[in-house]
Write a structure and sequence with these properties.
Shape: globular
Largest sheet: 5 strands, mixed
Length: 212
C-alpha cells in the first residue's frame, strides 16, 4: 500500500485504541494536497468527528505521540502542533497552532535523506512542561515530498488527537500559525525537488518550535 494514517494516541508506553482519542478521518488513507483547504487542520472529516472522539487527560511534560497503521515511508519531514481550545469535542481547529516537535532531513552532497521521519511506525515527543492547563488539539503530519517538484504535489498525512492537559504552566506561545493560512503551496519546504538537483538546505514549514 502506498499510503498511511496516524490512528492511535500514544501516552508514555501506552498505545491507545484506534480512533478513540484521535479524530476519525473519512478519506481512508489518502493524503491532503490542498493547503488552502480546512482539511489541512485535522484531515478530511476530522473537523466533524470531534463529538465521537474521547479526550485524554495528560500532564504537561509527558511523552505523547501517534501510532500509524503502517510506517511512513514517503520522503519528507514530520511536524507536531498543539492548539489550545475551549472544548476539544466541538472545536473546528480554526485557532492558533504552535509547533512542539519536528523531524527534518540529513543533507549530504549525494542526497537529502529523512532518517527521522520515514520508515517509522510511530512518532513520539514531549508536551512542553510550561504550557498552560486546558483542552487542546494535538496535530501530527508527515509531508511526503516525492512529488514536491510541482505545486500541489506535496502530500500531507495528518491527524488530530484531543487532550486535556494538566499542570501549572503559564507560558503562552507567540510564534503561531492558522491553518489554512500558515502554509503556502509555494513555500520552500513544500515546493521542492528532492531528487535533482540535490538540495543544499531545507526550510521546515511552519513556525519555530515552541520552547520553555
Amino acid at each position: 500500500m502506498s499510503h498511511y494514517r496516524f490512528v492511535s494516541l500514544i501516552v508514555g508506553t501506552t498505545i491507545t485504541g484506534e480512533y478513540v482519542y484521535v479524530r476519525q478521518n473519512t478519506n481512508m488513507n489518502s493524503p491532503v494536497t490542498d493547503v488552502t483547504s480546512t482539511d489541512i487542520r485535522c484531515n478530511v472529516g476530522g473537523l466533524q468527528s470531534g463529538a465521537t472522539t474521547q479526550t485524554y487527560t495528560v500532564a504537561a511534560g509527558s511523552m505523547v505521540g501517534f501510532e500509524m497503521d503502517q510506517p511512513a515511508y514517503h520522503p519528507g519531514p514530520a511536524l507536531a502542533y498543539l492548539q489550545k481550545i475551549t472544548n476539544a469535542s466541538t472545536t473546528d481547529g480554526s485557532g492558533a497552532w504552535f509547533k512542539i516537535a519536528q523531524w527534518g532531513p540529513t543533507i549530504t552532497p549525494s542526497a537529502i535523506e529523512w532518517p527521522d521521519s520515514t520508515n517509522k511506525p510511530n512518532f513520539t515527543f514531549t508536551i512542553p512542561p510550561c504550557v498552560p492547563a486546558g483542552q487542546y488539539l494535538m496535530r501530527i503530519e508527515q509531508i511526503a515530498l516525492h512529488g514536491g517538484n510541482v505545486v500541489g504535489g506535496a502530500q500531507f498525512y495528518l491527524s488530530c488527537a484531543q487532550l486535556a492537559i494538566t499542570g501549572s504552566g503559564t507560558k503562552a506561545p507567540t510564534d503561531t500559525i492558522a491553518l489554512p493560512g500558515g502554509y503556502k503551496a509555494t513555500d520552500p519546504g513544500i515546493l521542492i525537488p528532492i531528487y535533482w538537483p540535490i538540495p543544499t538546505n531545507y526550510t521546515m514549514p511552519g513556525p519555530s518550535v515552541f520552547t520553555c
